[in-house]
Q: What sequence folds into this?
């Protein structure tokens, strides 16, 4: 599925409190491949350095490529990426992230693919849990942001 690329029409839009977001144009079934997280693949050490810079300017699009808890590489989508760059956090997300291997057998060099966890209605914002689900802690830097997901089980803060 992932090798064929995105087949789902997406729309980037301005949210009320979270900056830019992504929503689906059509209804999606559970288990639907939505998008890959794309960007520049850099070392964990370079990711940590960029994280310090990004912290100072108040942005970050770094995503650890860890499966076993010890990331060696990081994807930085700040300068290049796709719609996944704008996926927001939710404490009750409709997407889950999986490490996918199709052009490398190196466990530290895989693709990050977003799939739906449940049925998603047309026009619904697509979100994932920044704290992690299958891949552990996705964040490079330690920061705390207010959470605006408004889900019934909202943790009120995003700890990265």
A:
């Amino acid at each position: 599925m992932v090798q064929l690329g995105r087949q789902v029409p997406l729309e980037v839009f301005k949210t009320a409190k979270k900056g830019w977001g992504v929503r689906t144009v059509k209804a999606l079934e559970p288990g639907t491949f939505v998008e890959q997280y794309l960007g520049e693949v850099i070392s964990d050490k370079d990711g940590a350095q960029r994280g310090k810079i990004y912290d100072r300017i108040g942005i970050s699009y770094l995503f650890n490529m860890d499966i076993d808890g010890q990331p060696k590489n990081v994807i930085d989508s700040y300068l290049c990426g796709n719609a996944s760059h704008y996926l927001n956090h939710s404490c009750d997300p409709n997407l889950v992230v999986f490490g996918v291997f199709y052009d490398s057998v190196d466990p530290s060099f895989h693709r990050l693919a977003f799939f739906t966890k449940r049925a998603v209605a047309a026009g619904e914002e697509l979100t994932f849990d920044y704290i992690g689900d299958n891949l552990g802690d996705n964040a490079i830097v330690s920061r705390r942001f207010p959470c605006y997901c408004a889900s019934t089980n909202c943790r009120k803060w995003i700890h990265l």
In short: The longest strand covers residues 95-100. Residues 2-159 form a domain with the Beta-clip-like fold (CATH 2.170.270.10). The chain has a mean pLDDT of 86. Helices lie at 44-57.
